[in-house]
Every structure is written in C-alpha cells, then in structure tokens.
Amino acid sequence: MALQVSAFAYFGLYRGHWRFASMPDLMRIIKAVAVGGLASMAVIFMFTRLEGMPRSLFPLYMIFLVFLLGGPRFVYRWLKDRKLYLSTGKRVLVVGAGRGGEMLVRDIFRDADQGLQPIAFLDDDPRKRGIEIHGVRVAGACKMMPGLVDELDIDMVIIAMPSASSKQIRNVVELCEEAGVEFRMLPKMADLIAGRVSTGALREVSIEDLLGRDPVKLDLPAIRAGMSGKCILVSGGGGSIGSELCRQVARLGPARLVIVDHSEYNLYRIDYELTRQYPDIEIVSMLCDVTDPSAVDQVFERHRPAVILHAAAYKHVPLLEPQVREAVHNNVIGTRTVADAADRFGSEIFVLVSTDKAVNPANIMGATKRMAEIYCQNLSQHSATRYITVRFGNVLGSAGSVVPLFLEQIRQGGPVTVTHPEITRYFMTIPEASQLILQAGVMGKGGEIYVLDMGQPVKIVYLAEQMIRLSGLEPGSDIEIEFTGLRPGEKLYEELFHEKETLVSTEHSKILLARYRTWDWERLQKLLHDISVACQRYDEDSLRGAMHEFVPELSPTPPAALPSNVIPLDSHKA
Description:
nine-stranded mixed beta sheet, six-stranded mixed beta sheet, about 575 residues, alpha/beta
C-alpha cells in the first residue's frame, strides 16, 4: 500500500477532477499502477521469493486496480455528461467535421447552459461520412444542407471551418440563405491554434470572410532583415492603410518608428495604440504636411529614416474631381517632396502606395497617382535610394470605402445606393494589403511597379446584397438597393496594369511586376516645376493641361468600359 500510494502521488492521480476525467487521466492511472505493482512485486520477491503466491496474482492485481480506479471516474463523468447529451436547446447543424467542429461540439456538451444541441455534422470529405464524433453523426455533404435543415428541424448552422477559403465560406453561406436558417461561424485558424474555440467565440460571418482570400505567405526573414533595427517612416500613418502598416512594422522590431500625418486625431489614435502595445519600441509621432518642404526636411534631418512607406494621399474619387489643385498638390507635389527628401538624406528604400485607378485613369485622383508613380520610377534611375511602387485595388473597411457606407445605410433602414448594376471592383483586406506592401518593399531593386494579385473582381451589387443579408435582412424587401448612376470620374471596371506595361511573375505568387515606362528626366523636371507653380497660383486650367501631358491616357470623361477592354490578370500571369 505504501508503494502504490507513493506511485499515485508521484503521477498526480489525486489532482485530477473526476468531472473531466479523460484519456490523460487513464494514462496516469496505468502508469501509476504499473510502477506501483512492479515495485511491490520486486519488494515481495526480495522478502518471500514469492513462496505460495501464484505468478498470475500481480498481472491480475494491476488489471483490477486499473478498472477499480478508472471505472468510478468514468462512470461519474458519464452520469454528468448524460444530462448534456439529453439536453434541449437550439438544434445545431455543424458544418465541418474537422478539429474545429470536434472542439466546438465538445465545448457544447461540457456546458449545458449554452442552450445548444448538436444534431449532425456536414462535411464534404467522403471518408467522414457516417462516422460519429462525440455521438454526433456526419450526415453528409454540405450540399445536403437545405434538405437536412427541414428534415432535422435545425435552428442554427455553425460554420466550423477555420481554415476554409473565402470561396468555400461563400458557398456555405449561400446554402444557409437558401435554407433560410440562422448561421454563425468559428474564428480563424490562428484562434483555433490558440485554443480560443468555444461557443463564446462564435461570431457572425463578416464581409471579409466572403471577399477575403487565402492567407498571405510572406518571406518573413527577408522582411525582418529589411525592417528590423532600422528607422522606418510611415507617411499618412494615421490612415487606414498607413495605420496597419505601422502595426505590421512595429511587430518587426524597428529601431524607431516615425509616424507622420497631418490629422491630429488620427495620429493620436495610432500613437496611443502602438505605445501601449510596443513599449520597447521608440515610436515618434509627428504632425507634418507632406507638401511642406521645411517640415519634411526637419523630420528627415532629425530621424534619418532608412525606409519610407509613403501612404499619404487623397483618395476619394468624386470629392477630388472638382478640386484639381488640392489633388495635385497633395498626391503629386507631396510625393515629390518626400521622395526628394529620401534622396537627399540617403534613405535606402522608398515605397509608394499606389492604386489601380492609376491605370488608364478616368479621374483626377487616378491621374495624380499615375503622375506620382512616373516620378518615383524615374527618380530611382538618378538616385542611390530604391524607389518602389506598389499598386492594388480597393481595401475592405478603409476610410471612405464602400463597406462603411453600406453599413451606415443599412443601419438607417436603406436604401443602399449602388452607382451601376454592372460596376465591379477588386478587393482585399487591410492586413493583406499592408503585408504585401512590406513584401514588395524588400523585393524591389528600384524603379519597379509591383502589382498585387487582387483575384477576381467583385460586383458592388453583390457586395451590397451580402452585407444586407449578413445584417439579418433581405435585399429588395427589407432594404432596397437603389442605382444612382456613375459618379464623376468613376469607371465600371478597374484595371491593375496598362497594356504597355509588360507584366512578369516574381518569386512571390501574389506579387506581379509591371515594367515601367521611362521619361526624359529634364522634361519631367520642367513639367513638375510648371505644375508646382500652377499649384501656387491655383491655376487649375494649367494643371489640367499639364496633367494630360503627363498622363496622355487620361480620359476626358469617365468611360463605361466594356469587359473586353480589361486586361485579364490571370492570362498575363500564365
């Protein structure tokens, strides 16, 4: 008894909670019994040579002891769990019989107060058909959902596919909408790995789940080598893209992060967030207008940044259309001011954050971004600094984007306004855009235009319909969708590169390279000088003329481009 009790204490049998007895507890019992039994046999053999004692006694002793120790524990747990399996509540259909689904169902059975009752699994893996997980059967493939919802009287569908692609999520959501059933979803794989999978972690499906793409695979060692231990400057660091760039850079451990923005409130918000999360990093927040050469020179003189991520720009197309001078002054003159400072103060890398609207621009905003691209690409040939342009489409949830507008219109009861039933846009999430900007920044040798692979364009009317449905309403009956016509400077279809830009693949699957078009440097400098003078005089007619000389492909009126005019990204990639 002394040896066996010592073995029990050593293996921690008395620390286990009977209510949650499981396989690890059984393994501890087996180890404790084996060690105690073998030790007892050795001691008894030393004293008695096992005289008059059957050799089968010790194996039988250990077998019976395992059953007598394990049996009560598992009977107690079964009695406690039995009421959970018989509990009532919302009848739940779980989509995904993998690790996420198993953990979710286990959590539901452990807590009867959640008011959920798992009825069946759905999974497209044929090897899982008919099996049971915690007593819940895999009833079939996902496409069977509409029929099973009625047949099994399902109240809620839980999408337990944390590593699923957006296309898979869209398919499941469409089936849920067809079945007319409430649906929720588990968090992403990162939360699953961290153990944050429970009914408390359930959330509504977001528009990012439907329109986002596969996780970005980054060359983290290269990015860290290019950013770690250096002074990094982010212009426009209080904006949507700029603030996320600051967050991504802070994780890489820079020697100093200099955040520049002309909005006091935006600068305060990102400064407050980062100084709390990264107390060991020197974060300097500076109010500065990128069009002010004296202020920009002061920032560069004081901090000597090695890497500049230039995200400061005006970007709202209809708002900028009648304000040519402001658009040119900020997007062109501001970019030139910061780019020239990077050259004078010996910065290593300058990354210009551009847009798909710079391709065959039909608006003032796109033309100004194209002008900024041209200047940075050609300046790279006359400077030791590497100037790199990164071009991508719309970013979900960014300030001024269509997603916050639709949310506000839905909250107000509609209508949701869409400019045209055929209008499409490329979309990506803010973290993905920021990560790919950093990746392109360390890849570039100077003068390149990197085009982020935006996937397939999405109809804005589809976006509106899905956002209405995700709000628990029905488009057309609860919330109307109203078509208002194209706004000034707006195109039906955006393009990611010009037909004269030779597109080639890079070592990163989501980043493509567009060869830039060279300019005569002296002509370029003279034209920019004339533009700067016109800005000072507020001469918008001269600015429009210079803009058309700079960007001859600028359309005088917004074209209703046909799909055949759009260069397909996939064909060039191939």
